[in-house]
Specification:
The complex is a heterodimer of chains A (377) and B (377). By secondary structure, chain A is an alpha/beta fold. Chain A folds into 2 domains: 239 residues, no CATH class; 115 residues, abc type-2 transporter like domain (abc type-2 transporter like fold, 3-Layer(aba) Sandwich). Chain A is built from 14 helices and 5 strands. In chain A, strands 2-1-3-4 form a 4-stranded mixed beta sheet, with helices on both faces. In chain A, helix 2 runs antiparallel to helix 7, helix 7 packs antiparallel against helix 13 and helix 13 runs antiparallel to helix 14. The longest helix of chain A has 32 residues. The longest helix of chain B is centred in the middle third of the chain and has 32 residues. A 4-stranded mixed beta sheet of chain B has the order 2-1-3-4, with helices on both faces. In chain B, strand 1, helix 3 and strand 2 form a beta-alpha-beta unit. The radius of gyration of chain B is 29 Å and the shape is elongated. Chain B has 2 domains: 239 residues, no CATH class; 107 residues, abc type-2 transporter like domain (abc type-2 transporter like fold). Chain B is an alpha/beta fold. The interface between A and B is large, with 114 and 117 residues.
């Protein structure tokens, strides 16, 4: 039994490594995708292109503008004298944000009235708009507080130390500089592993059927179980290799902190690979051609990545989608990845995720093997 | 070139698509699936995030502040704890996204006058969620602080507006800051990439792999006729998909459509020819289905997803990567889609995006024809 299994393993590994193109596919695309994702996937908002329309030309308006010019969140491209000009720039997509200070701004401030600051934001990208306008409010309110203190000081200087106020001290944990990369890179390890393991494995199995070599193998004394194990074990190793490759490249290239324990991450990875191999085998049992396998894999991978919380919070999804996400192994693996990388937590916290993956993996593998048996008979 | 022969090739291709149910499924079902997946799943509009509270003061004032948190739709106070480590643990395990800590001297400091700090400890693994959360929390605390100041100002007989600056934000093009309006138009580019490059490269690579392409070459059909005949059915299907997606976006997801249907059809046709040519070229170069699908994924789907501004703002990427985005036609198409849908920009003002896209169309169509010709000799 082990002799035949060993032969099968050797055959599979030779088949993968011999072909130059396949060798490239194992290393090139995953690394390229990791790098592109790491650089491109960001929800951070810095240097939002901004134009200022200052109709007041007062010391106060200039002071407010300087708060924006010195902020890393805004890139003040121009100071205009005409609001229409600013509107045109937004229409053409040349700037994202326009801040308008009307004439009489300083006068209203000095009189103790409320002075308006008009903000127009291009909300084509709703996320940028939301975060940028919250930064605008924070800066404007900071200035407003200072203006308020000056007013109170000018009226009643003895009260200046007694103005009550509540400040919020923001403490973002695990990712203090709020870097998108720290969020995405561990997630990319999970997503790319999904993509690679499912496509490579299902393709390999289906190709044997398509070319007719599957029948040749079936006439040899090999047993179905040996065939399945011999077929999936190499891809388990390949998946492990690729996951580690992507992980190492991503971690070192983008300098993502790893605060947890490697054995915890490896346990999660092994369980996750079992889930993915089961999935790939299932796909191969329902596909007769590589193209069919590709199409089916695509239909499986797209929802997997979307539902998993890879880039978009599960909490913001409709309820039925949140429920569906519990059936997706990647959802759990992402928690393990981010837990070990950023939070540095261990088995005591991650055991439910591990258990869920083990359950799904076991179930998937069993169904796949049963179906495969039938397909081979 | 003979129209009869071209039509014969096209007819063969159509029959092949119709007989292969799964290919047909991808053409019909995939656009709808992608639309639904992204329309529902890719949502950054957060609400009811679980919050832990540690109220060390336990006074009327601290309760008032917490009530303000509870009354917004963004926060859901799930538990009140009496120490900070409990919050730490909840963030570690993911039970809470934020912990609010009110210091023991909160009410005392407020009554004495002066500033007091409230802590918001936020799980920043997902930097975007953290940013949004902190923005909302800031708003709540600011509102509370203003309320206190109003009372204090009145008590001291000062007739001042509590907040001297009123930030009036207008969000253009997507007034309610809906994620769906921001994301859905771009889904068209993803659908086109899949139909255009992915599917065609696979179908044609299959012909190479099976040797039926050589049979086709030995017939009197010219290279040009093969290419056009093979791509024409996919072009028609692609345009139908554009229509299906547009109808879904407008009628089902209520994405505003402010531009012209003609411009949408024209730019979609340009992009479709571009990706079809690319898919054809890939299949000629790769000749194997596995390689073709991987290459198609990397040079069409991935850029359409990552480097087009579909989801991640190009403005926020590193400068080098921003330059690279100009090399992918998806960038122009996604920009066009967003402008046509949300901004309603007239065609005359779209030349900056239409011209490069048309350039890509011509160049890639030529490259595809050329490459195929060479292989025939």
């Amino acid at each position: 039994m082990f002799g035949r299994l060993k032969q099968m393993l050797i055959k599979e590994l030779i088949q993968v490594v011999r072909d130059k193109r396949t060798r490239f596919i194992l290393i090139g695309p995953p690394v390229i995708q990791m790098l592109v994702f790491g650089y491109a996937a960001t929800f951070e908002i810095h240097n939002v292109s901004t134009v200022m329309v200052d109709m007041d030309h007062s010391q106060e308006s200039r002071e407010l503008i300087s708060r924006f010019t010195s902020s890393p969140y805004f890139n003040v491209q121009a100071q205009l004298n005409d609001a229409n000009q600013a509107h045109n720039l937004i229409d053409q997509g040349k700037t994202t944000l326009a801040l308008e200070i009307d004439a009489g701004f300083a006068q209203k401030l000095r009189k103790g009235e409320t002075a308006p600051l008009q903000v127009i934001v291009d909300a084509t990208n709703s996320n940028t708009a939301l975060i940028a306008s919250s930064y605008v409010s924070q800066i404007a309110l900071g200035y407003a507080q200072q203006a308020q203190q000056q007013r109170i000081y000018s009226i009643a200087p003895q009260l200046i130390d007694q103005i009550p106020s509540v400040q919020l001290e923001q403490r973002p944990w695990y990712n203090p500089d709020l870097r998108s990369r720290w969020f995405f890179v561990p997630g990319v390890i999970g997503s790319l592993t999904t993509l690679l393991v499912i496509t490579l494995t299902s393709f390999a199995v289906v190709r044997e059927r398509e070319i007719g070599t599957l029948e040749q193998i079936m006439v040899t004394p090999i047993r179905p179980v040996e065939f399945i194990v011999g077929k999936t074990l190499p891809f388990f190793l390949i998946g492990l290799f690729d996951a580690l490759l992507i992980g190492i490249v991503g971690t070192f290239w983008f300098q993502i902190p790893f605060r947890g324990h490697i054995p915890v991450l490896l346990t999660g990875l092994v369980l996750f690979l079992i889930c993915m191999l089961g999935m790939a085998l299932l796909i191969s049992t329902v596909s007769a051609t590589q193209q069919q396998a590709m199409v089916t894999a695509f239909f499986v991978i797209m929802p997997t990545i979307t539902f998993s919380g890879f880039g978009f919070p599960i909490r913001a999804m409709p309820h039925w989608m949140q429920l569906a996400s519990y059936a997706i192994p990647l959802r759990y693996f992402l928690v393990v990845l981010r837990g070990t990388y950023l939070k540095g937590v261990g088995f005591d916290i991650l055991w439910p995720q591990m258990a869920a993956m083990a359950g799904i993996g076991l179930f998937g593998m069993t169904v796949a093997i049963l179906r495969f048996h039938k397909a081979l008979d | 070139m003979s129209l009869t022969r071209l039509l014969a090739v096209a007819r063969k291709e159509v029959l092949q698509i119709i007989r292969d149910t799964r290919s047909l499924a991808i053409v019909v079902v995939m656009p709808v699936t992608l639309m639904l997946l992204f329309g529902y799943g890719v949502n950054l509009d957060l609400k009811e995030l679980p919050v832990y509270v540690c109220d060390q003061d336990g006074s009327q004032q601290s309760q008032d502040l917490l009530k303000r948190f509870q009354s917004t739709k963004y926060f859901e106070i799930v538990r009140v704890v009496d120490n900070v480590p409990a919050i730490e643990h909840a963030l570690d395990s993911g039970e809470a996204k934020m912990g609010i800590v009110i210091p023991w001297n909160f009410s005392q400091r407020l009554s004495q006058g002066g500033s007091v700090q409230v802590q918001a400890i936020v799980d920043a693994t997902d930097d975007n969620t953290a940013n949004v959360l902190m923005g909302y929390a800031q708003g709540v605390v600011q509102g509370y602080s203003t309320g206190i100041q109003v009372a204090w100002l009145q008590a001291h007989g000062l007739t001042l507006q509590p907040v001297p600056i009123n930030v009036a934000t207008r969000t253009w093009y997507n007034e309610d800051l809906e994620s769906s309006a921001f994301i859905i138009p771009g889904v068209l580019a993803l659908v086109m990439s899949v139909i255009g490059a992915f599917l065609t490269s696979l179908t044609i690579a299959r012909e190479w792999e099976r040797g039926s392409m050589e049979q086709l070459i030995s017939t009197p059909v010219t290279a040009m006729e093969i290419m056009l005949g093979k791509l024409a059915p996919y072009f028609v299907l692609g345009m139908i998909d554009v229509a299906v997606c547009a109808v879904l976006a407008i009628a089902w997801f209520h994405v505003p459509f402010r531009g012209s249907y003609m411009t949408l059809a024209f730019s979609s046709a340009l992009f479709l020819v571009t990706v079809l040519s690319l898919g054809f070229f890939i299949s000629v170069v790769a000749k194997s289905q596995l390689a073709a699908s991987q290459i198609a994924l990397i040079i069409t789907f991935l850029p359409a997803f990552l480097l087009s501004g579909f989801l991640f703002s190009i403005e926020q990427m590193p400068v080098v990567l921003q330059g690279i985005t100009y090399l992918f036609p998806a960038r122009y198409y996604v920009t066009l889609l967003k402008k046509i849908f949300l901004k309603g920009t007239p065609a005359a003002m779209l030349t900056a995006d239409l011209l490069p896209l048309a350039g890509f169309t011509v160049v890639l169509a030529l490259v595809a024809t050329r490459s195929f010709h060479k292989r025939l000799e």
